[in-house]
TrEMBL record:
Sites where the protein binds Ca(2+): 621-622, 640, 642
A single GO BP: proteolysis
Entry protein name: tripeptidyl-peptidase II
Major subcellular location class: secreted
Co-factor(s): Ca(2+)
Signal peptide: 1-18
Keywords in alphabetical order: Calcium, Hydrolase, Metal-binding, Protease, Serine protease, Signal, Zymogen
Subcellular location: Secreted, Extracellular space
Function statement: Secreted tripeptidyl-peptidase which degrades proteins at acidic pHs and is involved in virulence.
């Protein structure tokens, strides 16, 4: 019976108004007004059981960057000395003394020790106690609140207090002044349905029957003569001097994230037979299914739209005999609405499921998929939490705009990337395919922000703890001996301005490791476009007619070829374009480097950005092309780092030498 009562209270939510605060208690949180359409109802029955959570203030988040640099900066004596998950939890958990102080107070106030639960990630204390007890502890009154449209009921209070010596240890308490705020995906209306997959773009094939080999091609081996028009794994290996892979070990299995798109074995087989004879027919990834993700499908399936096929084509052809783990995330209903990647991170780190930061605990319904999925045919299992061990390298070619998720949501998630980086994991992420805009229909018809859609719209995640990958291309009249340009092309309706996404985040400031590269960019190659300085809550995007945030984290970090890849999807051969291609190329490069490090007894490279920014010589700088959009010129690829192609494309021999030279 007790459980039933708890469930009912949770579902109906709780509210309260203040009673006089005795001298030992001090006001902790107070609400100025109720959210629109919510009205206060009756007092909660005094013996109703409330699920009370006390969010403890986290220690050490301010030190997170230093910790990550300590294991990731090439000059650090602790480079590569990654932490265990337990060490990460302990470092960011509230100090034991703080936990003890709050517990002691609760117990002295009559809460039974056995009723107090300390969460797995150590971030909060939980207990189920009668309303009268909670009201006494927090010197408040709980009321029901009713939503005038939907009739939904939640519990909360107008203000509450805590003993003075406890306040510093407590972030906030629920139920409290917030009526379990539901997060909105986006702050603006969309004119077209959401589609969270700027996947690769398929252009016509063949597009020009009159194309002839460029001058100079004749001196190249036959399988490298057409790389300006038809990119194959052989072309990519030649461009970046990537040797034929030969290592298969247990620890460097590469991870690929996929969601809503599903690979077809027949398509992989056709690709291997045509362009990657080193990979045997039937080679497939190990499936780690997350929240109902399934794979593979038949080639003609509506879920086979190219992304997964191409990610696997490139990855297997570059790293085989090394194997691949496929994280197929979300059921086929949620996959198209889950824009935030939190369900993926939940599955990789159970503590993230209940992690509290920036006033958010756990997933955010409205941004994240919810499991069990109530939709007909949805996945009915519980949310996957800590189900899988993350691979050392994970490549992701999906994204929406940064603006689509609330600022605090992205900050909380970015902390998780920091923690996974501390543990030696490398995340490579496609930057997006619409230059300075997001994809058409994301936030506005042209994918841009501001009242007149002229403000640039950075792609998510702009977190400085992932390696953001842009794209490059060769032109028709070029060979692998030419320097690549930024990927840009007119690929037809709604993709006229297809190009390597890049620019400056609104949600994250320039990280220390990138400061000198960005300062040099502005000093030597100022784009001459109007800009603004973002404010603390990122509420002035586009202020003063500016197009971009002058003080934001710049992206991408690096780039690789993302044009004219020949591949089969639904058994039909096409040319594929996008930063979707570039991310798995970088993921493969890092995997091959990790293998060589493993072979000499060293650990994984982990978070690579600080090493790359300090050693730009190890990349091929890209200096031609641009990413126009939102009615203006966008940015140009220039000497040094730029917000189109980052530091450039991989030179495998130089990168290998660099990383083998580190501890
Ligand atoms: C968020 O938490 C802080 C304490 O960290 C608190 O002062 C603030 O009122 C909270 N904000 C909201 C919107 O709940
Ligand atoms: C796959 O190709 C077949 C044969 O051309 C076609 O009938 C089918 O509609 C295609 N499937 C999809 C999802 O486009
Ligand atoms: C975001 O997080 C900060 C820091 O915890 C907090 O002060 C602020 O109120 C949060 N904003 C929202 C909208 O919850
Ligand atoms: C959009 O219009 C509103 C109302 O006129 C104004 O307050 C706001 O500053 C404008 N935003 C931008 C980015 O121009
Ligand atoms: C430079 O990029 C432009 C497109 O911006 C392209 O037309 C031109 O062919 C490129 N030149 C070289 C040398 O790659």
């Amino acid at each position: 019976m007790k459980c039933q009562l708890i469930a009912a209270i949770v579902a109906f939510g709780v509210g309260c108004h203040a009673i006089p605060t005795p001298s030992t208690h001090v006001l902790h949180e107070k609400r100025s007004s109720l959210p629109r359409l919510w009205e206060r109802g009756g007092r909660v029955e005094s013996d109703a059981i409330l699920p009370v959570r006390i969010g403890l203030t986290q220690d050490n988040l301010d030190n997170g960057y230093e910790y990550l640099m300590d294991v990731s900066h090439p000059d650090s004596p602790n480079f590569g000395k990654h932490w265990t998950a337990e060490e990460v939890h302990d470092a960011f958990a509230p100090a034991q003394a703080a936990v003890q102080a709050v517990r002691d107070w609760l117990i002295s106030a009559g809460v039974r020790p056995i009723d107090i639960v300390h969460s797995d990630n150590k971030g909060w204390l939980a207990m189920n106690i009668p309303a009268w007890k909670a009201e006494d502890l927090f010197r408040t009154e709980y009321h029901e609140h009713i939503h005038s449209d939907s009739g939904a009921v939640r519990v909360g209070c107008d203000e509450y207090s805590l003993p003075e010596h406890i306040r510093e240890h407590v972030d906030y308490i629920t139920p409290g002044v917030k009526l379990s705020a539901s997060l909105k995906r986006s702050l603006v209306e969309r004119s077209t349905p959401l589609h969270n997959k700027p996947g690769p773009y398929k252009s016509h094939y063949p597009h020009d029957p009159h194309w002839t080999f460029p001058p100079g091609a004749g001196s190249l081996p036959p399988d490298l003569q057409a790389c300006g028009r038809n990119i194959t794994p052989t072309c990519i290996k030649a461009l970046y001097d990537i040797p034929n892979a030969y290592i298969k070990d247990d620890v460097n299995i590469m991870g690929l994230y996929e969601s809503g798109d599903i690979y077809s074995q027949a398509d992989l087989n056709s690709f291997f037979a045509a362009y990657a004879l080193n990979v045997p027919q039937g080679t497939h990834p190990k499936l780690d299914s997350i929240d109902g993700g399934e794979a593979p499908v038949a080639p003609g399936s509506e879920y086979n739209t190219g992304e997964s096929d191409i990610d696997m084509d490139l990855t297997f052809s570059l790293i085989y005999p090394q194997t691949v783990t496929l994280y197929q995330v979300d059921d086929n209903i949620e996959a198209f609405t889950d824009g935030g990647f939190n369900t993926f991170l939940d599955a990789l780190d159970g503590s993230y499921c209940t992690y509290t930061a920036y006033n958010i605990t756990g997933d955010s319904p409205g941004v994240d998929a919810v499991y069990p999925d109530p939709a007909p045919g949805g996945y009915k299992g519980p949310l996957a939490c800590g189900t899988y061990t993350p691979t050392r390298v994970i490549s992701v070619s999906y994204g929406v705009s940064e603006y689509d998720a609330p600022l605090n949501y992205t900050r909380r998630q970015c902390n998780e990337f920091l923690k996974l980086g501390l543990q030696g994991h490398t995340f490579v992420w496609a930057s997006g395919d619409y230059g300075v805009a997001s994809f058409p229909g994301d936030d506005s018809d042209n994918g841009c922000l501001g009242n007149d859609s002229t403000v640039y719209n950075p792609s998510f995640p702009t977190c400085p703890y992932v390696t953001n990958v842009g794209a490059t291309r060769l032109y028709d009249d070029q060979t692998i001996l030419d320097r690549e340009s930024a990927m840009q092309a007119d690929l037809g309706p709604s993709a006229e301005l297809f190009s390597s996404a890049g620019g400056f985040a609104n949600y994250f400031p320039v990280p220390e490791y990138q400061k000198s590269a960005i300062a040099t960019y502005f000093a030597k190659h100022d784009p001459g476009l109007p800009y603004y300085y973002i404010n603390a809550d990122a509420s002035n995007i586009g202020a003063n007619g500016g197009f971009y945030n002058r003080v934001g984290r710049g992206f991408p970090d690096v780039s690789a070829n993302g044009a004219e890849l020949l591949a089969y999807v639904n058994q039909s051969l096409g040319h594929w374009w996008g930063t979707s291609l570039a991310a798995p190329i970088w993921g493969s490069v890092v995997t091959l480097i990790n293998e060589e490090r493993t072979a000499v007894g060293k650990g994984p490279v982990g978070f690579i950005n600080p090493t790359l920014y300090a050693n730009a010589w190890a990349l091929n700088d890209i200096v031609n092309g641009s990413n126009p959009g939102c009615g203006s010129a966008g940015f140009a690829a220039v000497e040094g780092w730029d917000p189109v192609t980052g530091l450039g494309t991989p030179s495998f021999p130089r990168l290998l030498a660099l990383f083998l030279g580190l501890p």
